[in-house]
TrEMBL record:
It comes from the Bacteria. The gene is queF. It is an enzyme of class 1 (oxidoreductase). This is NADPH-dependent 7-cyano-7-deazaguanine reductase. It is found in: Cytoplasm. Its main location: cytoplasm. Belongs to the GTP cyclohydrolase I family. QueF type 1 subfamily. The keyword Oxidoreductase applies. Its EC number is 1.7.1.13.
Length: 165
């Protein structure tokens, strides 16, 4: 089995780098990508990010969530350490839950041009209410556009039993 060449990893600067400058404000520029070795295969890549934090834009109070990102790559994959640093950049960013989830999706669409992507935020309750925004995207003119429309209509038909928040 062959690994990746230096040329394939030329755009990756964060992985293995110990001198990371953590951004304390929203920063999509930290995201990095690398070539998908299997662009002819349709497959999902899923990230579970249980330590997401942002700030309420009205009160400045912290909001906590698990962010689920699932995508079907085309030519590019997101580098996971850059994704971690990107999500960390929301820590002091004031935005509503729905805005955070949509920004994450749009930034990843801009970076990766995936066949399909969905982002789901499962926020812990504040004031007795939890908010779980979901958004998705399917590449226009492909089967993934239709899949995204269908998935959006049926995305929460079988909601989970919530007993841990």
């Amino acid at each position: 089995m062959q690994g990746r060449t230096k040329a394939e990893l030329a755009g990756i600067s964060l992985l293995g780098n110990q001198a990371i400058d953590y951004k304390f404000g929203y920063d999509p520029a930290v995201l990095e990508s690398f070539a998908n070795k299997h662009p002819g295969n349709d497959y999902f890549v899923k990230f579970n990010c249980p330590e997401f934090t942002s700030l309420c834009p009205m009160t400045g109070q912290p909001d906590f969530a698990t962010i689920y990102i699932s995508y079907v790559p085309d030519k590019l994959l997101v580098e996971s350490k850059s994704l971690k640093l990107y999500l960390f950049s929301f820590r002091n960013h004031g935005d509503f839950h729905e805005d955070c989830v949509n920004k994450i999706m749009k930034d990843l669409v801009e970076l990766l041009d995936p066949k399909y992507i969905e982002v789901w935020g499962k926020f812990t309750p504040r004031g007795g209410i939890s908010i779980d925004p979901y958004c998705n995207y399917g590449k226009e003119g492909t089967k993934w556009q239709a899949a995204a429309e269908k998935r959006l209509m049926y995305h929460d038909m079988y909601p989970e039993i919530i007993n841990n928040r």
